Amino acid sequence: MATTASQAMTEFCEQVNPRVLAALRDEKARRMRPGDMLRVQESWLAAAEKRALVWLAARTPARINPDHLTILGLTAQIGAGICYALTPWNRYALLGVIVFLALNWLGDSLDGTLARVRQTLRPRYGFYVDHMVDSFGALALMGGLALSGCMHPGLAIALLIMFLMLSIQSYLATHTLGEFRISFWRFGPTELRILLAVGNLALFWKPRVHLLGASFRLFDVGGAIGLAGMTSMVIFFTVKNTMRLYREERIPK
Questions:
Q1: Tens digits of per-residue pLDDT, 195-212?
Q2: What is the pLDDT, as a whole number, of residue 214?
Q3: Spatial separation of the C-alpha atoms in residues 66 and 73, rounded to whole Å
Q4: Domain boundaries, the chain
Q5: What integer is the mean pLDDT of 61-76?
Q6: Helix spans in the chain (H)
Q7: Which fold has domain 43-179+187-249?
Q8: CA 163 to the chain's CA centroid
Q9: What average pLDDT does the segment 162-185 reach?
């Protein structure tokens, strides 16, 4: 049934607009080569991080494979969320978050590099699993923050929603443009982890800040800034990609 419908669509496009048929064929060919997508990584630390990851991958024991590192990354992010949730009872849990963020970086960043260095790439499997793991990890991290007392729960939920919106935008751009963007405005996952770790150290010593004569939780201020930035990114790239797709698929008059 699906094959018949596809053939009917192809015949219809060929009769009505040959350009649409060509676009469909190009899209089909592109989907068959998921490893050919353009990876856009323009973050501040991208070059240094790439060198470090290749060095680590070359020295990773053979018994450790990319799946092990993916599991490490997810487990570490869940651990960071648990540490945040434990903060009301013991503020030293904030230091545990930093340790888990470092382990999350190792697992989440090294798994793909290890697969590329060993020439064991599975593009569709890796893309799907890696980003579903990121979604579950973000849920655990933001859930822990919502329970930590360090940030208003509503703000933590809003940050999670905006992260998922930014992810959806990125995945749709990957499918429609063949361009997978890892960083936005020179900020990538590694820079965000570093900012969060530095914020944790500041939070450990000084949990509140004073602005305009009022006292606020440090992470409420930082979270509001982060939310504004992520919202701006979603809007900017949505408009940019919509305009690009409109120009590329302009209907001839």
A1: 999 999 999 999 999 888
A2: 87
A3: 11
A4: 43-179+187-249
A5: 97
A6: 2-16, 18-31, 46-58, 66-86, 93-117, 123-148, 153-177, 189-205, 218-248
A7: Four Helix Bundle (Hemerythrin (Met), subunit A) (1.20.120)
A8: 8
A9: 91
